[in-house]
Amino acid sequence: MIEKKKTVSRKLLHAGGWQVIKRVAKSIPYVGTVLAIGLVGHDIKKKGLGKGILNSGIDAIPFVGLAKNAVEFFTGDFIPDKQNGQPGKGK
What we know:
Blueprint: H1 2-38, H2 40-47, H3 49-60, H4 62-75
Helix pairs in contact: 1-3, 1-4, 2-3, 3-4
């Protein structure tokens, strides 16, 4: 009798766990978009206004941003950072 309760509770835990995993998996694209929007200021500071907005815009597109960042992990930035020695900019 005790063994049946363990199996039933284990089945409930297993089914509930899958529901949580499904919900988290569905929210991942939105979390990435929010993160990209939150980092717009940092991108603008590193790359300049136009390139920073372009980079953040690409990152904010759910699956396109994921693919871009996966490729950039191995190859480096598609959109390079601005130069340190630009006129009018202190080091």
